[in-house]
UniProtKB/TrEMBL annotation:
<dbReference type="InterPro" id="IPR043129">
    <property type="entry name" value="ATPase_NBD"/>
</dbReference>
<dbReference type="InterPro" id="IPR022673">
    <property type="entry name" value="Hexokinase_C"/>
</dbReference>
<dbReference type="InterPro" id="IPR001312">
    <property type="entry name" value="Hexokinase"/>
</dbReference>
<keyword id="KW-0324">Glycolysis</keyword>
<dbReference type="Pfam" id="PF03727">
    <property type="entry name" value="Hexokinase_2"/>
</dbReference>
<dbReference type="GO" id="GO:0004396">
    <property type="term" value="F:hexokinase activity"/>
</dbReference>
<comment type="pathway">
    <text>Carbohydrate degradation.</text>
</comment>
<comment type="similarity">
    <text>Belongs to the hexokinase family.</text>
</comment>
<dbReference type="GO" id="GO:0005536">
    <property type="term" value="F:D-glucose binding"/>
</dbReference>
<dbReference type="GO" id="GO:0005739">
    <property type="term" value="C:mitochondrion"/>
</dbReference>
<keyword id="KW-0067">ATP-binding</keyword>
<keyword id="KW-0418">Kinase</keyword>
<keyword id="KW-0808">Transferase</keyword>
<feature type="domain" description="Hexokinase C-terminal">
    <location>
        <begin position="1"/>
        <end position="177"/>
    </location>
</feature>
<dbReference type="GO" id="GO:0019318">
    <property type="term" value="P:hexose metabolic process"/>
</dbReference>
<dbReference type="GO" id="GO:0006096">
    <property type="term" value="P:glycolytic process"/>
</dbReference>
<dbReference type="GO" id="GO:0005524">
    <property type="term" value="F:ATP binding"/>
</dbReference>
Length: 185
């Protein structure tokens, strides 16, 4: 549950729970019980709202969740929840990426961490696709930070995250080319 399909609803669920436990939204929080009413792009827009009065947060809550008046304290809570959900998703995605890299021996260490080699670590490029990574700047930042945190700065320099369009099409073409090559040998 770390993809763009779910992050908005995870945020909505957390906000709904907060609304049930504490009176921060008042009586207008009834729409928070509607599944998927808060999309990830809306969540990202609220999270990235850097206006002093968090007017984008207020606008999204007013127009999409029928919450006409949301106190500043509640808007700050919304941004904090968006931040927590986004950080969690980015850290989980980074853990998966690094886990796969370690499993296939492409985490950039090549024995460097153990001191067993003098070879320069290999560079690995990770092709990232999808609106979450391409459009959500804070998610991208948090993902990169998490990769650095897991691998350490030195090894993380050898892992490059790049946005690619049509990654599944490119992957299919590469697999086809590899299969055709092996058949011709």
């Amino acid at each position: 549950m770390i993809s763009g399909v779910y992050l908005g609803d995870i945020t909505r669920r957390a906000l709904y729970r907060i609304a049930q436990e504490w009176d921060v939204f008042g009586d207008v929080a009834s729409h928070l019980d509607v599944p998927f009413i808060l999309s990830t792009p809306m969540m990202a827009a609220m999270h990235e709202d850097d206006s002093p009065d968090l007017r984008e947060v207020a606008r999204i809550l007013r127009e999409n969740l029928n919450m006409p008046i949301v106190p500043m304290r509640a808007r700050r809570i919304v941004v904090a929840v968006c931040d927590i959900v986004t950080r969690r998703a980015a850290r989980m995605a980074a853990a998966g990426i690094v886990g796969i890299l370690k499993k296939i021996g492409r985490d950039g260490s090549d024995g460097v961490a153990t001191g067993r080699t003098k070879a320069k670590p290999k560079r690995t490029v990770i092709a990232m696709e999808g609106g979450l990574y391409a459009s959500y700047e804070l998610f991208r930042e948090y993902l990169k930070d998490a990769v650095v945190e897991i691998l350490g700065e030195e090894l993380a320099r050898n892992v490059v995250l790049r946005t690619f369009e049509d990654g599944s099409g490119i992957g299919a073409a590469l697999l086809s080319a590899a299969a055709a090559r092996s058949l011709n040998q």
